[in-house]
Amino acid sequence: MSQTLVQKLCRTKPIDTTVEYGEGLSSSGLSRSIGLFSLTMIGVGATIGTGIFFTMVEAVPKAGPSVVLSFLIAAITAGLTALCYAELSFRIPASGSSYSFAYATVGEFLAFIMAACLLLEYGLAGSAVAIGWSSYLNNFLENAFGWHIPEMLRTPMIVSGPHGMEFHAGHINLPPIFLICMCGFLLLRGAKESALMNAIMVIIKLAILVFFIVIAFSGFNADNFFPFFNADNSKGFAGMTGVTAAAGTVFFSFIGLDTVATAGDEVKNPTRNVPRGILGALLIVTVFYLLVAVAALGAQQAKLFEGQEAGLAVILQNVTGKTWPALVLSAGAVISVFSVTLVTIYGQTRILFAVSRDGLIPKSFQKIHPRTLVPVSNTIIVCLVVAVVAGSVDATYLWDMVSIGTLTAFMVVSIAVPVLRHKQGANRIEGFSVPFGPYVIPGLSVLACLYIMRDLPHTTFVVFSVWMAVTVAIYFLYSMRHSHLGKKAR
């Protein structure tokens, strides 16, 4: 029986509530080898490091000391969405995260749009974080050995200059390319090994941040918080406008919540562990973000953050007058950002795996190596694309694009909760549910995302619109005709 166009766009995947989720292989052929601790560390590893180590340089010039409010707004918004993620991941425990949630609730077309948002989010996040890693690596090499990476080998070809986009022929940012190659090598060895290595790196990262907080508070100066709001309106960021704009910039750092859900097919007992992993990661991340932000702003005037490389390391050097604290922090950042890059690349490969498994993109993205149980071609392609972007483009162009992808994904997840509740009705299995019914928390989550999104730059919306246009074209030219659901309906 042929389907109408609307039926094709709105067809949804059935939700299997009868599967036993023990150890061994999932129905997709991936290995269920990740426990609750490792899963929570995946979430923490994907978040702590990005917003703190790098984006304060972008966010503080917009909001001033009130960037603390920006982190708080982003955390509250992420918290509302985390509750929605927790319910959906309990009821739809599969790889693909927001994509899988959308496919089971609001339909195939919006699910494919969501997948495109996630690919934009994860791919550019991996590139942006790898770029930031370069500055801390350079700081570490200078303090440890008195040697720095030549500028031509640590600056990209396409940069954001005072008069707009500039092209620097012959320049390449080599360190992030090297980092992505290392991440790719580790991911090809298997998910369990990657998760274990990530957990070790996250523990080191948290210890380094505690080290920073203790030393930075020793140089705390309350005067650095006055005036609290940015009073300079030359760039349109005075008052709460700056706070909201900065919240949009730092929001991408909460991508870790989505990353936890992408691992649904490789988690032991996902109906229990995925919701707990999401909420546990959010709690740890929020506490550390706020503590480090307050300590950094108390130790250094807000005006000094703009354009500062390896900012937290420089703060420690200025507070103590010695290089060894900066050396320790830079070494910790080098390790920490490795884990962030590793997890974001992992997340993107699992999203592509899920989309390919549904027939919406070529099947080469779902081919699994028989020994390592890893999608090899998928991982190599993702690493190549992320490395090219990281080596040639200035991170300034990437932060806000990652945020708009994350915000869009979070809104769709929130909308999916009441849709899923309505679909399941009285057949809904007992377990974690969003409090106060299916509309209050999801509705607040959508409004909070829209509030943050409104102050993102105009250019971000233009590029995002182009990306969406390309996505729609791919869906109608390829995905709709190759969809496995569509073939079953014929």
UniProtKB/TrEMBL annotation:
Keyword flag Transmembrane helix: yes
Keyword Protease in record: no
GO molecular function: amino acid transmembrane transporter activity
Transmembrane segments: 34-55, 67-88, 109-133, 167-188, 195-217, 237-257, 278-299, 326-347, 373-391, 397-420, 432-453, 459-478
Pfam families listed in its UniProt record: AA_permease_2 (PF13520)
InterPro entries hit by this protein: AA/rel_permease1
Predominant location category: membrane
Membrane topology: Multi-pass membrane protein
Domain of life: Bacteria
Any single Gene Ontology cellular-component annotation: membrane
Keyword set, alphabetical order: Membrane, Transmembrane, Transmembrane helix
Listed PANTHER family: CATIONIC AMINO ACID TRANSPORT INTEGRAL MEMBRANE PROTEIN ROCE-RELATED, INNER MEMBRANE TRANSPORTER YGJI-RELATED
Subcellular localization, as worded in the UniProt entry: Membrane
Protein name: Amino acid permease
